[in-house]
Design brief:
Length: 435
């Protein structure tokens, strides 16, 4: 009980470090290499949530049986708790041998595992550190394997990566950025930019998308792709998402108070915001506090969220739809959509991903995909908006195909709220004079 994991029967953390210390001592005497592999199962939480913890425990046992049979007799596989597994590969002559074993482990995981009559597909992300090149102490070997494992996840998961110093510097920068991200809300460093969404003629703003920016005091503006995934990892996305929603609703209500024709404001949602039970209540309370009617709020989810196997997404979307807010699928066309799933979702509009729009007039494939998405939306009585429109050829094509709305640099770049008020305040005055 002191040295073995109760669930899988594998060596636990204590026995792992004891064996690693002995493997290092042997390697010093024999001038060989010791590799430490840290594996984290990808998306294990989703399986646990959808099938229950008993099924999750059974999956962990099956995984441990499968992988332990793929290592050599004098190697060690250990469970560190949760869905993390560690391997000690001793008496190696080169790192190539470690890569070969890591490859065998990934291939072993590629075979589906049968649980409760269902075929479960699971993958793993692995990080590898080596004695003596990367570190000479057990704890540091583990830390560097951990850094390499997270690098594998960032690179798309289901792979292995050897540790290198660039990863260490990146991890150090990530830690500093994490600490600064915690303080960003307190210091009021976030700002919203708004990109106008126009009707197909380009003459009327019918909506705007709220785009988050981090105005770092030293680094300047940091793009969302550099800090949103980090906010999700460290558990800050709910708090940041709440700030974005509140600010966007306040700004939109203020536009109406300034005499602007009411339009919708679109706010992006993260998958992590669906994991709790408070999203619907947060939206409802924000609308109440800001005195904004729900039809003037649009919530965007990515296609991967809409089409993924997440049991509570459809329920939460239905709750939001019942509130009266507009729901849209962003980046449409970038994933393998299930039409049967799409028709069950209470969405109001589809956004064509800009990679297809920007291929218009350049290749027939992007034109065909864009045409299909517009036709699909029309057949399902959904509005369709094209994002990333940058030139007149793209606009002409979208007009011909009866796209409803457009968004892109051809008309307006994202802009701060005050600038948007100035631009469209003048435009509204001009429209009144011309009418």
């Amino acid at each position: 009980m002191a040295f073995y994991d109760a669930l899988t029967g594998l060596p636990n953390r204590s026995l792992f470090y004891d064996r690693l210390d002995k493997a290092i001592a042997l390697a010093e005497r024999t001038d060989t290499i010791v590799a430490v592999i840290l594996m984290d199962l990808d998306s294990f939480k989703n399986i646990n949530d959808s099938m229950g913890h008993d099924a999750g425990d059974l999956l962990l046992r099956r995984v441990s049986e499968t992988l332990s049979s793929r290592i050599r007799d004098y190697d060690t596989m250990s469970r560190f708790g949760g869905d993390e597994f560690l391997f000690i590969l001793s008496q190696l002559k080169t790192q190539v041998e470690a890569a070969s074993i890591a490859d065998k482990l990934l291939k072993a995981l590629a075979k589906p595992i049968s649980i409760a009559g269902e075929e479960i597909h699971i993958t793993g992300s692995m990080g590898i550190s080596c004695f003596p090149e990367d570190a000479k102490e057990s704890e540091m070997l583990f830390k560097k394997a951990d850094i390499a494992m997270y690098y594998s996840k960032e690179q798309g998961k289901n792979r292995y990566s050897f540790f290198n110093t660039k990863m260490y510097n990146s991890a150090d920068e990530k830690m500093r950025l994490s600490n600064e991200l915690y303080r960003a809300l307190e210091r009021d460093e976030f700002i919203l930019y708004y990109q106008p969404q126009m009707d197909i003629t380009g003459t009327a703003m019918i909506g705007m998308e709220a785009l988050l920016r981090w105005n770092h005091p030293d680094k300047g503006f940091i793009p969302p792709l550099d800090f949103i995934p980090l906010a999700e990892d460290i558990g800050l996305i709910d708090e940041i998402g709440k700030w974005v929603l509140n600010k966007a609703c306040i700004d939109n209500k203020n536009l109406q108070l300034k005499g602007f024709k009411p339009i919708r404001v679109a706010v992006n949602l993260s998958l992590k915001q669906f994991s709790g039970s408070s999203l619907t209540e947060m939206v409802k309370e924000t609308l109440r506090k800001c005195e904004l009617k729900p039809e003037y709020l649009e919530l965007e989810i990515t296609e991967s969220i809409a089409m993924g196997d997440f049991t509570n997404v459809q329920q939460v979307l239905q709750e939001l739809s019942d509130l009266g807010v507009i729901l849209s699928i962003d980046d449409f066309g970038t994933e393998y959509s299930s039409l049967s799933r799409l028709k069950q979702l209470p969405v109001n509009r589809i956004k064509i991903d800009k990679q297809f729009v920007q291929g218009i007039s350049l290749n027939t494939h992007d034109e065909s995909i864009t045409s299909f998405i517009i036709a699909l939306a029309k057949s399902m009585r959904l509005k369709v908006i094209a994002e990333g429109v940058e030139n007149s050829k793209q606009l002409s094509f979208l007009t011909e195909k009866l796209c409803d709305e457009i968004q892109g640099y051809y008309f307006y770049k994202p802009m701060p709220y005050d600038y948007l008020v100035d631009v469209f305040g003048v435009k509204q005055v001009d429209d009144l004079h011309n009418s």
